Amino acid sequence: MDLVQQILLTALAGLVIVLVLFFVQSGGISRTFTSSSSPYFKPTFLILGANNAGKTSLFYRFVDDSVPEGKKRPVTPTVSSIEPNITEIELPFSNNSISRVYQLVDYPGHLKYFQLFYKLLLEDITLQKVKGIVYVIDSSSQWFNNSENIEVISKYLFNLFSVTERLQNGVDFLFAVNKNDLFDSVPVHKVKSVLEAEINKLIQNELNTVDKQSGIDKSEDDAESDEQYSSTIGHESLREFWLSVIGRPENKFTFDQLEGNTDFVAGSVLKNKVETWENWFDEKVVNSNL
Ligand SMILES: Nc1nc2c(ncn2[C@@H]2O[C@H](COP(=O)(O)OP(=O)(O)O)[C@@H](O)[C@H]2O)c(=O)[nH]1
Ligand SMILES: [Mg+2]
């Protein structure tokens, strides 16, 4: 090996070492290889909510309304509410000539899948790519006036916000208050205030609890799912996060305190009253150049 080759080799080795150090220090290895190589790393809208709220029905409504005839791709409908549905839709709904492709994800609401959901959200899609979340709520009195149901969805949101608000401007939420075709459906303003009060309870619980692992009372059954939450978001950081949202411990939580916008809009997938919800998508896509 002559001198020139030796110098070149040494320089190359140096460069490799510098690059490796850079990746390790910036956490670049995990980020580079998980997010950008994932097939789900695309601009995305998520449809979330409890079981039976109407997520999958809404997913297919959106698919039908967004894809022009002739370009429709078959989406395999899930029978149970266990598997997520993932497809691509063209937005805005109102004008097909300027359309762009977005990923649409319908994710089952059960707490059991929260950990898997976090992986999909944070490592595959990544928060930066989330352009909005549609949170579907069953507004029938039968469902909504059951305090257990409210506890479950409030807990879900309580944890989800602590993740979405990691982005500087948060993530925008559309609360799709569904099934308003039913004669006994709960009005939007009540849905909003009941959720605010329940989330506030969880926050107060979290702030007042020092030693317990989670501020949420647990039965044997949901201890496991709470554990799944806390392995993703530490108890300490959850408390700090919520304190930073409400400002002072004595303040009450309102959705306005979040960085992301939250819109509560009534509608019905069954009666095809989804126009205002579709306008919400269009506004995001057209105005903010997402
Ligand atoms: N009355 C009424 N029922 C609805 C509406 N949207 C969905 N449903 C019904 O609610 C049930 C659950 O819907 P689905 O889309 O599977 O909910 P998911 O579990 O959230 O995916 C189905 O029986 C739907 O027909 C609605 O706007 N009004
Ligand atoms: Mg479903």
From TrEMBL:
Molecular function terms from GO: GTP binding; GTPase activity
Q: Which residues form the signal peptide?
A: none
Q: Which residues cross the membrane?
A: none
The annotated topology with respect to the bilayer is:
Single-pass membrane protein
Say if the entry is tagged with keyword Transmembrane helix.
yes
User: Where does this chain mainly localize?
Assistant: endoplasmic reticulum
Q: Which GO terms describe its cellular component?
A: endoplasmic reticulum membrane; Golgi apparatus
Cross-referenced CDD domains: SR_beta (cd04105)
Recorded hits in InterPro entries, A to Z, give:
P-loop_NTPase (IPR027417), Small_GTPase_ARF (IPR024156), SRP_receptor_beta_su (IPR019009)
Give a GO biological-process term. Answer: Golgi to plasma membrane protein transport
Q: Which SUPFAM superfamilies match?
A: P-loop containing nucleoside triphosphate hydrolases (SSF52540)
Q: Give UniProt keywords alphabetically.
A: Endoplasmic reticulum, GTP-binding, Membrane, Nucleotide-binding, Receptor, Transmembrane, Transmembrane helix
Identification of the protein by name: Signal recognition particle receptor subunit beta
